Amino acid sequence: MTLKLGTVTTIVISSPEVAKQVLHKYDQAFANRTVPDSVRALDHHKLSIAWLAPTSAQWRNLRKTSATMVFSSKQLDSTHMLRHRKVQELLNFVEQSCKKDEALDTGEAALTTVLNSISNTFFSMDLAHYRASDKLQEFKELIWGIMEEAGKPNVVDFFPIFRVLDPQGRRARMT
Fold first, then answer.
1. pTM for the full model?
2. 50-93, pLDDT tens digit by residue?
3. CB-count burial class (<10 Å; 0-12, 13-18, 19+) for 37
4. Could you name the domain of life of the organism this protein comes from (predicted)?
5. Structural domain boundaries enclosing 26
6. Residue 38: CA atoms inside 13 Å, Cβ hemisphere, count?
7. Crossing angle of the two packed helices 106-123 and 80-99, in degrees rounded to 10
8. How many whole angstroms separate alpha carbon 143 and alpha carbon 139?
9. Distance (Å, rounded) from C-alpha 43 to C-alpha 56?
10. Does 6 fall in a domain?
């Protein structure tokens, strides 16, 4: 079944057999994803591995670089102690909070741990701290805002003729 919303044609596959056939035989034809107009702010869709077309040379190069330089077994083994130290910091923070009978925001503590693990891997420094949460809260709000803007329906995605106008202001807010 096909569904046409503005200029976007969506194919609905309702049987597992047909889905398997499509994904196995025609995977390249269906590999490209629709890029929401809001993601086009600051040309992010041209630079991000998440939004580039998987069939492009740039996407393949970024994927290869990620696989060999960031996620290879050798690289992951070399950062094992760093990840272990960050988890230990999390456990120490939880223990201190329990001893002081303080309320613990587990989501924020986990975000701090993950963010510091990633930032230490790439920049050799912590970007967040467990107690001083102003910067972490600002970062969290920024990421949440980006996810919300990219995920909301936008009339421009269905009727690209309105792209210049940005009638809902999604691209402006994303910028």
1. 0.65
2. 888 777 888 889 889 888 888 888 888 888 999 999 999 999 99
3. buried
4. Eukaryota
5. 1-30
6. 18
7. 150
8. 6
9. 16
10. yes
